[in-house]
Write a structure and sequence with these properties.
The chain has 370 residues and is an alpha/beta fold. It is built from 13 helices and eleven strands.
């Protein structure tokens, strides 16, 4: 980038100098009036001092810039006071242009090894604004001597990511508190199998008494599958056909530590079915409602599901089939966008082993493919 300062008797004269020497692609960095002393300090006069810059890039790259990034001085009628108002925006545009040029040329705007780290995180699909926030905060904390220390930089970025993602972790339940947990979500995401994993974990590892209730009567196999798990765990399985039956059934199970409620899968596009589901959820009055999503689903579709299921007031997100996914930045993006915490991950069909209650370190490891 070429930067030069110009002194002129007037603003139009300064404009002419900039256009002649730097061309119309130049941008103004600063402008001010300066006083010049005359002979023996008398007969002083005022001048305009303008600092301008231009990127020394190939013509093809310059041609690809948006027209609004051209020199703001090309309009000779632009008032002097307008320059001061435009200065902050011009600097912001210049920084954005440098970042875009770097990406266009296939390289990061950050020095190595920060550039490699940026590219690695970018490849995960992590949202650009959050990624930039992390990188800029990291750059501001690093001393010049640390910029070449790969191991230390990776440790610092892990710590920073863990700190930022810690708010998206579901806190543990206080011991001895009875809970009703309901799983909702589209068809085929694995709600019934996941409920079995949650129940088996509660029975085998926490020695809690559990019970099942389902209102998924649309799939006979789902009820039979749940009864099989109930037999193995010596847990009762109840079926509720209406919201009124749901309330009565839950009252009869008040002695159990955790009651898991399995819901019928509903497409986010079917508003009528979603309204029916909402009526059942109001009868359940669950302590936790986990919106269950498959990690193999496209990010835009998951956003659509979350938006449609918002009327159910989910308390957390639960992601299944991580073993079938490849890029997990979108999962982090969903947490950032919705503000909902991550309740559990599942990464296989084994009950109860393929179940993870994530901590912030798990989220970072997931993001980095570890």
């Amino acid at each position: 980038m070429k930067i030069k300062r110009f002194l002129a008797a007037s603003l139009p004269e300064a404009k002419a100098q900039i256009l002649q020497e730097l061309g119309e692609d130049a941008v103004v960095l600063s402008s001010r009036q300066v006083k010049r002393k005359g002979i023996l300090g008398w007969l002083g006069f005022s001048q305009v001092e303008v600092t301008a810059a231009v990127d020394e890039v190939p013509a093809a790259t310059a041609e690809s810039r948006p027209s609004e990034q051209k020199l703001l001085l090309t309009d000779p009628a632009a008032p002097w006071e307008g320059l001061q108002r435009e200065l902050t925006e011009t600097k912001r545009m210049l920084e954005a242009m440098a970042s875009r040029l770097a990406r266009t040329q296939g390289r990061s705007a950050y020095p190595e090894p920060m550039g490699s780290l940026y590219s690695r995180l970018q490849a995960t699909g992590l949202e650009a604004g959050f990624l930039t926030e992390v990188m800029e905060e990291l750059m501001s904390d690093l001393r010049p001597a640390q910029l070449a220390d790969v191991e230390q930089i990776e440790g610092l970025v892990r710590n920073l990511l863990e700190e930022k993602l810690s708010r998206y972790i579901l806190p543990p339940v206080q011991a001895g508190v009875r809970q009703v947990i309901c799983l909702i979500g589209p068809t085929g995401v694995g709600k019934t199998t996941t409920i079995a994993k949650l129940a088996a974990n509660a029975v085998l590892r926490q020695q809690q008494r559990v019970a099942f209730v389902t209102f998924d009567t649309y799939r006979i196999a789902a009820v039979e599958q749940l009864r099989t798990y109930g037999d193995i765990l010596t847990a009762p399985v109840q079926v509720a056909l209406t919201p009124a039956e749901m309330r009565q059934t839950l009252n009869t199970l008040s002695d159990y530590d955790i009651v898991f409620v399995d819901s019928v899968g509903r497409s986010q596009q079917n508003k009528m079915q979603l309204s029916e589901l909402k009526a059942f959820l109001e009868a359940v009055d669950a302590d936790e409602v986990y919106l269950t999503l498959s990690a193999t689903t496209q990010y835009e579709v998951m956003l659509d599901v979350i938006e449609s299921y918002r009327i159910m007031q989910p308390t957390a997100l639960l992601f299944t089939k991580l073993d079938e996914g490849r890029c997990f930045g979108p999962i982090i993006n969903l947490l950032l966008k919705t503000g909902l915490p991550a309740a559990f991950f599942t990464n296989g069909q084994d009950v109860p082993d393929d179940l993870i209650r994530p901590c912030s370190r798990d989220l970072v490891n997931l993001l980095l493919g570890e």
